[in-house]
Amino acid sequence: MFLKRITDFFISFFALCAFAPVMILVAIAIKLDSAGPIIFKQKRVGLKGQLFEIYKFRTMRTGTPDLPTDQMVKLPSPITRTGAFLRKTSLDELPQLWNVITGQMSIVGPRPALYNQEALTQMREAAGVLLFPPGITGWAQVNGRDDLPDEEKVKADKWYCDHWHYFLDWKIIFMTFGAVFSSRGNK
């Protein structure tokens, strides 16, 4: 786990430096597209069930209710034009590199649940998933993303936690690129 933390820190630091020009362009596009802040902050469930604020580029209009993505499809789309592109390319996730640098998240781990996803959090707690740092990407993300029901996400997260090793993280990182480029399970 020490090697995982050091790898997380250096990957995040260099990625923030490398993507700085892209992040500046994204910030400008968000401001030109709709009113509101550039960065969206949201309470998520982290390590050992502790709440933390996750950072993302804002992809929705301000005032949108805090609901899981799968429940948003029942509402008129609150996603901005820029937001649709950011979600499709997963560029909205780049600010989470700061969450990784500060130690609140890992590059790879179970995706952190919303603070109000109580059933999912309880399933994860029962499965022991909350004893592992949450990640920007994870085994569930490369095996279905938002297409998976909560029970399947928890199974995938538990499998990852039970079988974790340093090179599994690297495998998931490379698989993430394939999932992002195919836009599989991305809503």
Structure commentary:
This protein is mainly α and 187 residues long. It has one domain (2-182). Helix content is 49%, strand content 11%. It contains 7 helices and 4 strands, in the order H-E-E-H-H-H-E-H-E-H-H. It has helices at 2-33, 69-72, 81-89, 96-101, 118-127, 150-163, 166-182; strands at residues 39-45, 51-57, 106-108, 135-137. The strands form 2 sheets. A two-stranded antiparallel ribbon has the order 1-2. Helix 5 (118-127) runs parallel beside helix 6. The mean pLDDT is 90.
What integer is the average pLDDT? Answer: 90
How many helices? The count is: 7
How do the strands line up in the largest sheet? 1-2
How helical, in percent, are the residues?
A: 40-55%
Please mark out the parts with pLDDT under 50 across 5 or more consecutive residues, or reply none. none
Characterize this entry briefly.
By secondary structure, this protein is mostly helical. The chain contains seven helices and four strands; from the N terminus they run H-E-E-H-H-H-E-H-E-H-H. It has one domain (2-182).
Give a quick set of tags describing it.
mainly alpha; two-stranded parallel sheet
How is the secondary structure organized here?
Layout: H1 2-33, E1 39-45, E2 51-57, H2 69-72, H3 81-89, H4 96-101, E3 106-108, H5 118-127, E4 135-137, H6 150-163, H7 166-182
